[in-house]
Inverse folding.
């Protein structure tokens, strides 16, 4: 509940926030301070500024038809502090407020998003914002162009996840504006700004060889790589692809999970330490790499964390660099597992077989990879109706 007392301070984690009513509007946010004394001082200055601006007519109950998106964000920015607010501010300044969009599908009028009336911003404008973002150059190519370089990085376009983030930022500010009664709830609804489904990228079988070759290359960007660093990287990536292990299952591989002849592996639950799912077959290429590792501890791939394994950032950069080197974008550690399932579907595997391969609990999870892979059903038709 909003507090109408003299202070209105509330504790939010490590920082002090505020929550009070001002001229019929609920003001809420964070002071950015961890001590009560500094938070009270900040809030006193903020309340004084609100009163001064109210007298000057800068804030108050302005008609919703006169409030632009730029003014809504300025009000939001004035009451939010901290790293999260700084990141959001960068996206608003660079990718939302200055973007030019059509006022409506039937209008030829083009306006900057910041100049649009806030209550008129809806799904149509969110889609334009998303398209404009995706049409722009990737961050690294924009930097190269600014530096005057002729080199074009293989990843030429921006990611759908970045465009969706902008739409979420719109929803965040709209939700706040409705909560503090800056905009009417009946008009500005954050749920109007829906997100598109992110296109998931997976490795194709004909890209796998080149990708693994890039993973196996010496890590020249590390000045002093730890012992067996490259070998660990080669093993963990192959375990995620060739055995369809989750990233954590690959990081926490144990020697006790392998059969005596190193041809089978039983995955472990990383939280409970108990075995989970069906044993995986270990292909010869992975087995040859495993035999090069010393077997002097519990973990197959010992690292520097408290648990004794590599941290979750271990594979992220290597996988990203290797995929970008072969011209494939959007590949993350978890895409290794999805790539294995997609290749299995392309090879004719059923949803049930893929479920067993990836140790999924529901066949519906595996079914989506079958849908992604079966773009051409001619081979299936030829097998079903031979000679027809």
């Amino acid at each position: 509940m909003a507090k109408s007392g003299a202070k209105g301070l509330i504790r939010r984690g490590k920082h002090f926030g505020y929550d009070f009513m001002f001229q019929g509007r609920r003001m809420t946010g964070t002071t950015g301070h961890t001590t009560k004394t500094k938070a009270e001082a900040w809030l006193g200055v903020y309340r004084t500024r609100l009163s001064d601006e109210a007298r000057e007519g800068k804030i108050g109950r302005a008609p919703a038809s006169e409030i632009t998106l730029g003014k809504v964000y300025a009000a939001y920015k004035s009451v939010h502090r901290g790293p999260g607010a700084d990141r959001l501010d960068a996206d608003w300044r660079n990718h939302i407020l200055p973007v030019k969009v059509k006022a409506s599908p039937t209008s030829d009028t083009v306006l900057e998003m910041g100049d649009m009336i806030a209550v008129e911003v809806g799904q149509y404008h969110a889609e334009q914002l998303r398209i404009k973002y995706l049409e722009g150059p990737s961050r690294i190519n924009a930097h190269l162009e600014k530096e005057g370089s002729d080199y074009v990085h293989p990843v030429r376009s921006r990611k759908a996840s970045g465009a969706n983030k902008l739409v979420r930022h719109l929803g965040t500010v709209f939700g706040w504006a409705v909560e503090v009664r800056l905009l009417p709830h009946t008009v500005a609804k954050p749920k109007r700004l829906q997100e598109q489904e992110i296109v998931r990228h997976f490795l194709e079988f004909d890209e796998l060889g080149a990708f693994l070759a890039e993973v196996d290359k010496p890590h020249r960007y590390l000045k002093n790589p730890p012992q067996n660093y490259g070998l660990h990287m080669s093993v963990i990536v192959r375990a995620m692809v060739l055995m369809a292990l989750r990233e954590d299952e690959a990081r926490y591989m144990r020697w006790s999970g392998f059969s005596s002849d190193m041809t089978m592996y039983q995955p472990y639950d990383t939280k409970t330490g108990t075995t989970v799912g069906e044993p995986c077959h270990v292909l010869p290429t992975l087995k040859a790499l495993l035999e090069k590792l010393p077997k002097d501890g519990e973990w197959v791939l010992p690292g520097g964390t408290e648990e004794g394994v590599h941290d979750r950032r271990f594979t992220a950069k290597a996988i990203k660099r290797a995929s970008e080197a072969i011209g494939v974008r959007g590949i993350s550690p978890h895409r290794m597992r999805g790539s294995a399932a997609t290749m299995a579907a392309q090879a004719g595997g059923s949803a049930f077989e893929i479920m067993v391969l990836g140790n999924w609990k529901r066949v519906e999870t595996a079914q989506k990879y079958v849908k992604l892979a079966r773009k051409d059903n001619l081979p299936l038709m030829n097998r079903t109706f031979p000679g027809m």
